[in-house]
Amino acid sequence: MALIRIALIGLSSRTHPSPRTTGGVAWAARAHLPYLLSPRGRARYQIVGLLNSSLAASQAAIAAHNLDPAHVRAYSSPAELAADEEVDLVVCSTRVDKHYETVIDSVREGGKDVFCEWPLAEDVTRARELADEVRKQGRRGMVGLQGLKAPVVARVKGLLEEGRIGKVVSSEFRAFGGLNERAGVPEGLAYMMERKVGGNVVTIGFAHLFDMVLSTLGELKSLKGDLHLQRPENQLKDASGAVVKTLRSDVPDLVLVSGKWEESSIMQKNATLHFRLRRGPPFPGEPCLVWTINGEKGEIRIVSPHTTFIQLGHPNESHLIEIHDFATDKVETVEWDWADWQKDLPFPARGIGALYEAFADAKNGRAKEDYVTFDVGAKRLETIHGLLEDWQREQ
């Protein structure tokens, strides 16, 4: 099969991002590049171009990451990238409010496939426009929601499909995180205090976890939200941890939702969901995440002591899957693991690598689209912005 030729948007020239730095620029280097430069990635993809904020910034990134300037082009604008006929897939890993403006030309005029990090866009209108345009042009659009590819999720889905607990009657999800501090934020993430930017604890942290639940148990037929902003005053901190100034947030930091499922092969009619995410760390000694799935014949429990985002993994990984058989009253620990090729990648790149694998399989006709498409991504964003708008009307 021919290599899929990639142009990356948002690969910073920084090769060693600060531990306090997250978001688009650092994420491209930490999560995308390791897979693309791995033997497995090189067998499927070829990086042929980079786009940053300027031609000089694009050229600096090519040099910083030891990419061959003879084979990797530096672009000065989204229009220049869109016009390059030697690009098959545009990968956008910038801050969310730059997604639309940097990829729309590549879809509408360049006829290219797009892999866009989550959230798809800063608002529902632009997300819908991107999804509609991808469909209109007959292209593929993939969103960076990697929960459905997590090995923990795959293992749990397998247990449900085997009928180990009978049909699901309820599920409860309790997590902490989204940002490491309750009321502190690093300078590079100050935008997460502004709803209008589109990237925050609700649209990113909650969305990743919520999508993982739906990818495992199916789409809900109804959903109600109960959002709260408990700590509107936030301390902006520099790289050393020193407080620079105080910011006022307009983003909820406690998200509670409840919903019901339709009957399915794994779900009882009107099976319920209760979901809770609170920003910041848990009570000392408590796990970051506990997810239970209660069935007719048993119950599954997933516990993550060290990380909220189990789709990413953690160096001290000890995600635990247990299953309680009601008939025997015995509790069994269920084994799970990353694929061997994923173990050779840093944790942030493992889930992203799985998305690249799924995209290549679909592109080359070896499998159906086993990833979150732009259409589904726009639907997810519409649901989440609906929760935020309902909360705003109540203020």
Fold and architecture overview:
By secondary structure, the chain is an alpha/beta fold. 32% of the residues lie in helices and 27% in strands. It has helices at 24-36, 39-42, 55-64, 78-82, 99-108, 124-137, 151-161, 201-217, 340-343, 347-363, 374-394, and strands at residues 4-9, 45-51, 73-75, 89-92, 113-116, 141-143, 168-177, 184-186, 220-228, 233-237, 243-248, 254-261, 267-279, 289-295, 298-304, 320-325, 330-334. The protein has an 8-stranded mixed beta sheet. Strands 3-2-1-4-5-6 form a 6-stranded parallel beta sheet, with helices on both faces. Strands 8-10-11 form a 3-stranded mixed beta sheet, with no helix packed on it. Helix 8 (201-217) packs across helix 11 (374-394). Pfam families: Gal80p_C-like (PF22685), GFO_IDH_MocA (PF01408). Residues 24-144 form the Gfo/Idh/MocA-like oxidoreductase N-terminal domain. Residues 151-302 form the Gal80p-like C-terminal domain. This is Oxidoreductase.
| Percent in helix | 25-40%
CATH topology of the largest domain: Dihydrodipicolinate Reductase, domain 2
Oligomer type: single chain
The CATH superfamily of the largest domain appears as Dihydrodipicolinate Reductase, domain 2
**What's the number of extended β-strand segments?**
17
Strand order of the largest sheet: 9-12-13-7-14-15-16-17
Relative strand content: 25-35%
